[in-house]
Amino acid sequence: MTDLLTLAGVHTHVGRYHILHGVDFSVPEGQTTMLLGRNGAGKTSTLRTIMGLWQASAGQISLDGQRIEASATPDIARLGVGYVPESMAVFSDLTVKENLILAARDGPLDDARLEWIFGFFPALRRFWLSRAGALSGGQKQMLSIARAIVEPRKLLLIDEPTKGLAPAIVVALIECFAEIKRRGATILLVEQNFHAAQAIGDTVLVMDNGRIVHRGEMAALAGDFALQEKLLGLSLETHQ
Amino acid sequence: MTDLAATDALPRPKRDLLPVLLPAILALAMLPLIGSGSSWMTLTVASLAMGMMIFIMASGLTLVFGLMDVLNFGHGAFIAVGAYVATLVLLPLAPYVQADSLLTNLAVLAPAALAAMAVSGALGLVVERVLILPVYGQHLKQILMTTGGLIVAEQALYALWGPQIIPLPLPTSLRGSFIIGDVAIAKYRLLAMLVGLVVFCGIQLVLNRTKIGLLIRAGVENREMVEALGYRIRRLFLGVFMVGSGLAGLGGVMWALYREQVHASMGDDLTVLVFIVVIIGGLGSIGGCFIGALLVAMVANYGGFLVPKLALVSNILLMVAILMWRPRGLYAVTSR
């Protein structure tokens, strides 16, 4: 299996702060890779650095064999990277339809693909002409994800999609990610909810203090409670 | 019911109509104070015309601030340059300007206005690349750089044309008034209202019906996310800056014809007025800018008629009153 995304010795500084301290990992093509870790471990910073929103101060980032660490954010997006930020960042003043029109930069909205998206997120069809700012938190998350998949993308960077959402929506998101993966997309997904991560991930990376401290199969970590407690601070009660 | 199926209706966004009604409320409230219906009508039309011209000058500034987060204190330079360019075009064509034919007059006014917009827009390109590009995200430096740019532009106009006021007479067919009953409505003011409305509708059309407009509205709200969707927002910045500068140039032409004179410091004088309008409207809001311009013009005209001494400070008083009521302006843009 080839690697779609590779980070080698990536450092990121934000102002005076040294956030990432030599991050190394690869994301295999067609798989869902989970990026886990405690708050402040550097997960969001890693996604922002890949996306070019923060410039890497050292190291290499390659997408499909092409170096991107010095590329501008729009150029990285145009290489086929979809980004769902933790804040969702839907355009509140625009309608659901207008948000998706903007996301479909290669042409008009594809009806078949829209139907596919509405299959996961029926609320988006219902509120098609409503202002995104009026949607609930869960609906905004659906819109944010729909925006990233409204056109086929090689790689999706998704930051804590289940944060603060109702269990029914989390289940829908898990189904959605599985379907996106079946369609051939590669996903790098930051997640705090270990149950969701178990259900979605093929491989797992764990970060701490701006470094990758563990990499392996998701199934292996899911079965090793001691390792979970060591890496993530998860106790046995979490699994009960 | 969960968010997933979402059969419940969304809470309807509250329609905030009070700012839209303010100019009408103000105009009606002034009627008994002014007493004479014809004076009230004349002042109201004068306010609407003046407001439209101020809106044309201010619209570019509010978009530039909303999208680019740039405080351009040099905006007045585009206004003055536009007025001078139109003067350069119109003075040699004086026989056509003085011809007693509306078509002939408009045939020389239109290219003068287009030339003013083109030169101001091109100047906007240079200013963005040379003065603003190095100071994106640094408000204090933006103020210093653009104020410096305004001073340089003003001094360049002095050096080229001298300190004297240059008369710019109105075309013959736009002089005088239409008399309806005992109400006199100046012809040029009607033209100014028409041009202002066309500009306002044009901007609204672009912002609400085109993908470029969607990008501008989205960029005002979250520049970073627009870039993450694959759009090069710097190019959009530049385009908006040039259009904003061009509109300021058009406003300069309209204002110069309204005053029938051009002078090098006119941009300087108008900068304060334009900033007051943008602040009143809500930084980045075109609708707010439109209402703010009308209110400023109404307060200036009605105030000047009722309490002439108050006219000197009426704009500042209006701004203070609006900001005490709505600290972020009439229509605050979501992200600011």
Tell me the helix content of chain A.
Answer: 25-40%
Tertiary shape of chain A: globular
Structural class of chain B: mainly alpha
Percent strand of chain B equals under 5%
Q: What is the gyration radius of chain B calculated from CA atoms?
A: 21 Å
What is the arithmetic mean of pLDDT of chain A?
Answer: 91
**Biggest β-sheet of chain A: count, sense, barrel?**
6 strands, mixed
Spans where pLDDT lies below 50 across 5 or more residues of chain A:
none
**Beta-strand content estimate of chain A:** 25-35%
Biggest sheet strand order of chain A reads 6-7-8-3-9-10
Order of helices and strands of chain A: EEEHEEHEHHHHEHEHEEHH
Q: Would you list the SSEs of chain B in sequence order as H and E?
A: HHHHHHEEEHHHHEHHH
Give the N-terminus to C-terminus distance of chain A in angstroms. Answer: 35 Å
Helix content of chain B: over 70%
Number of strands of chain B: 4
Task: Tell me about this structure.
- Chain A contains ten helices and ten strands.
- The radius of gyration of chain A is 17 Å and the shape is globular.
- With 240 residues, chain A is an alpha/beta fold.
- The model of chain A has no long low-confidence stretch (mean pLDDT 91).
- By secondary structure, chain B is mainly alpha-helical.
- Chain B has a domain at 60-264.
- Chain B is built from 13 helices and four strands.
- Chain B has a two-stranded antiparallel ribbon. Chain B has a two-stranded antiparallel ribbon with strand order 2-3.
- Chain B is globular.
- Chains A and B meet through helix 2, helix 3, helix 5, helix 6 and helix 7 of A and helix 8 and helix 9 of B.
Key features of this structure:
heterodimer, A: 240 residues, alpha/beta, 6-stranded mixed β-sheet, 4-stranded antiparallel β-sheet, 10 helices, globular, B: 336 residues, mainly alpha, two-stranded antiparallel ribbon, 13 helices, 4 strands, 71% helix
